[in-house]
Here is the input.
Amino acid sequence: MSQSNSKKLGELMPHDHHDHDHAHAVLPSEPALRVKAIETVLTRKGLIDPAALDEIIDTYQNKVGPQNGALVVAKAWHDDTFRAALLADPMGVIAELGFYGRQGEHVDVVENTPDTHNMVVCTLCSCYPWPLLGIPPSWYKSDAYRARSVREPRAVLAEFGVTLPETTKVRVWDSTAEMRYLVLPMRPKGTEGMTVQDLAKLVTRDSMIGTGFPKDPA
Here is the structure.
């Protein structure tokens, strides 16, 4: 709610700290408690099914998110045959791993190399591969990121701490409802002999968007 709207509501319903019968006087101050209060009201009215809501929460807490994309990247780093298959048929390989569903129907994988650094944006809204990366971060949906990533990608990357050699080309991919992208970052040096599980711990969400690098194994 905007400050102006909040002010207008305040003028219509002036606060009276001695009158606890008003709903706004007893509404919990903590966001989590507010959400719980709204959930309780909607449940009592029969507008939502608590079991269905719990399933949705469990899905986005434990089943989808950056850990899925990190596993894909780690397997590609670890196995050249898997990497080649992933680049040739991204959706086929990703589906075999079970990472598909809403907002992940069409995904392409773009590979970073010493010559090319890939960066993903959605200039129209916030299209994003949810099954692989979870819910998009707020900055990904911001007007500034969506506009500046196309206009001045190197400047945006620098603000994320990503500085590239002048000889490295920056390629910006614009996600749409028809196609979303996952960046396959370059494997960090010093990771020879590491397992897929250990490699996955080095993969960051931002590195799979192109606005970051994997973690240093050291």
